[in-house]
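Researcher: We plan to redesign the surface later, but first we want a full-length starting point. Tokens attached.
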């Protein structure tokens, strides 16, 4: 639940924007949708970017971390989606500019 709304699909949410469904199909990786949102992340100028990785916590590979670093995305906070949602709600409640990519373990 984010900001009092229960979602049944993966979403991205940025400061000053409505949540957007992230289309997750067979073979889609979390890293691919992070790459696709790179410019939106930069444009929204968040204080923190939360990445909810599903039911289990997962980290990017070394090659993926290098790509993120080269593209200025070095301050992503990786956690399972439930923890990312709780953190998002807490930080928004403090008035912080938070962006989030929340992966649900479901396929469309």
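Model: Full-length starting sequence:
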């Amino acid at each position: 639940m984010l900001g009092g709304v229960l979602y049944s699909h993966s979403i991205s949410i940025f400061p000053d924007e409505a949540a957007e469904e992230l289309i997750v199909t067979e073979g889609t990786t979390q890293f691919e949708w992070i790459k696709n949102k790179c410019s939106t992340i930069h444009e929204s100028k968040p204080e923190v970017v939360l990445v909810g990785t599903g039911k289990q916590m997962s980290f990017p590979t070394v090659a993926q971390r290098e790509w993120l670093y080269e593209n200025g995305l070095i301050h992503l906070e990786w956690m399972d989606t439930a923890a990312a949602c709780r953190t998002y709600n807490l930080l928004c409640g403090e008035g912080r500019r938070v962006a989030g990519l929340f992966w649900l373990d479901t396929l469309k």
